[in-house]
Amino acid sequence: MKLAVIFVGLLAWSTTSVHSLIDSAPKSPESFVINGLNATLTPHHALVEFFNAAGLGFFGGGSIITSQHILTSAQNVHGFVRWRVGYGTYRRLELTWVESTNGLTYPQYNPVNRNNDIAIITLPSHIVFSGRVRPIALPQFGMEELPYQNEQGMITGFGFTNDQNHIAADNLRYGYVRVQPNTACTNVLQIQTPNHFCALDSRHPVNICNGDIGGGFVVFYRSQELLVGINSMIIQNCHIQWPSAYTRVSLYLTWIRQITGL
Question: How far apart are CA 155 and CA 173, in angstroms?
């Protein structure tokens, strides 16, 4: 039996109250990637807030790939009209923010089964790179199989620890999971292969949860960090023992380069 899935799974606020609600909430040191650790330097990660036409706000993740482009999940873009991107530090209250009204989903994105769950937010101004903020490299053409089965990847996010805990904390968190056979996900998630891949770590359980959708799955390939996946699908209770699904970035390089000029 397939379990229910949260695709965006984010808490909604009105536009006028999103920041006051977050800032006044009690803080928990375990309120990000489930069972993860506090990150101290993740210069490519971005916090993405997105708003619909009614002014309701949600948040997820993204990855800086150029000085004007954030790669994220289509779930964070489809049906929304405005985005705020925070970057430059692992502490949420110290992020630098830029607002955009230019978000583009992959043309064949399917909001029902989350196939082709990838999108790009274009910023109106350039991010100034430094030791604290810089883009992450993408796979090259010919690397369509990345990530490989059993390859370890790093996940990051500002999301909740479970679907009952709607407390936002200050510090970005990270963890490591391993790519699993597709069957590990098809038993519980309706993944679309090869566009999705599946990952978990049963030895040191860690997982993405609500608020982490759109963030990156990063591997080290020949001593270089590569963005090979995008957080896409999670089990409803965000349990650390269940696998999650990620969009395989290498299959969308042509489209990404058409939009960004990379």
Answer: 8
